[in-house]
Amino acid sequence: MLLKVATALSVLVAGVLAAPEVRLHGTRIIGQDVTASKVDFFGGVPFAEPPVGRLRFRKPVLKTSLETRIFNATNFGSSCLQPALMPGVSDVSEDCLTINIHRPTGTKPGDKLPVLFWTYGGAFLIGGSASYNGSELVAQSVRRGTPIVYVNFNYRLGPFGYPNGKEAHDRRSLNLGLEDILAALRWVHANIDAFGGDKRKVTIFGESAGGMNIGVLYLNRELEQLVRGAIFESGQANGRPGFAAAESETNWQGFVRNIPSCASVATSGNTFSCLQKASQEEIRTAYLGSFGGGDLFGGLAFTPTIDAGPGGLYPDFVSKLYKSGKFAKIPFIAGNNLDEGTLFATAARSANYTEADLKRGVIFASSPPVVDPGRLEEGATKLLELYPEDPKVGSPYGTGDDLFGLPANFKRAASLQGDQTFDAPRRQWIQTASAHGVKAYGYLFTQPQPLGDPAGGVPHAAEIGYIYGNALDFSPEGRTLTTYMMDYWISFTVNLDPNDKNGSERPIWPLYTESNQVLLQLNGANTSVIRDDYRKDGIGYMNDNAIVFRR
Predict the structure, then answer these.
(1) What is the pLDDT of residues 180-189, one digit of tens each?
(2) Residue 136 known to be catalytic
(3) Residue 463 known to be catalytic
């Protein structure tokens, strides 16, 4: 019996001893070995103090030590508080500012591996790092001989991350989600060496709202001190209309009015003291109704806010800053999926949705106007001319007259909304940056989705699974594209160039320049170079008149 106990104990001790470990500021951080991938994982490590109580609605306070001798880092931390809208995100908490690291097994402190740093999307309302497992990306980096460290983290969402209104402005509490991203990057700079990463070789990448967040951070030169490269997947700074804090006051008051314990102070201009005492569930319930039903014209209540004050991260309308060259000059990749708008044109699925509704949506999203109201009216009318009710030119693209059993206005609305929110911002950004000499690469993801809704085409977010090596596309073309995309992303992380000679034999991806405005079409059957001139008239009008639409 004693022999059995001793044997069991020795096995247990051996297992503990075999677990990957990092020493950080006097703490032993114990992770786990993702054995099948030969990858070490460290999860749920706090990078900032819990943003609760008096720290609710405050800028993050960087965590300088873990205040414990041993820290169990074998699991992801809780996702930030959010409505129950995202599959796979069930463990949520306000105490959520944690970071996760995947690295090749055997990596040692000081190995100086390049770092790929993920920022999730989710309409600034939902999402979490636990949904994105970087082990296959890291494993692929090892297989191709260019090992990297993968990092992801959580940032605050909804009213916790993007409070708005005059009080948030006066208290310097706007854009806290952006501040969380910067705090996580600063933590990486201070600590990634212990995990074998190189703080001087960080590439930040993100999708949708994650890409939009990165785009706003590009409006600050400090980013040049924290990252050396970026990858924008379907998201740029001007993907959403820009509003100042005062213009969101009514929205903030309406939100507070839905919190029973604070409703009486909703219009007082002094809501934070009450909100810091309100229960998490009260606040969570109040902002469940803040999601605009998935329709981009329905409005998102909590997004980055223009802040021209001291230390403001979003100092002006994006198009104005682009024109004056006031943005970080950091190399990047930026691209879109073929049918960005199909996922969001939910209102247009109704048979009662009319051209007048579409026009009202364009005007509503840009109101109150910053130009003469007649000019906004004229702009909306022009967009309807450029995006006609002709299913042959609508989204999903390349599907002819097929309406998929939906009203004709669906394909029209999907095209217009997708371009205004994703494709036009990407083109404006890459053209602007390349004109200022920034090294840039562009792509268009067109891989057919075998398990997707035919009316969705190649929808928003479809590319993510290919990058993470877990796409539900088991066709030979799908497997080929997965390898290509992982190799392109890893190569850019290592070299700031997607075209190294390691891994798959894949097509050369040319630079995007003023004189050579080309994209790489990412398609398993036909990865090839194409001109960046699709829907030239419509996208051109949007970008030439960006300020009309508050961009």
Answers:
(1) 999 999 999 9
(2) no
(3) no
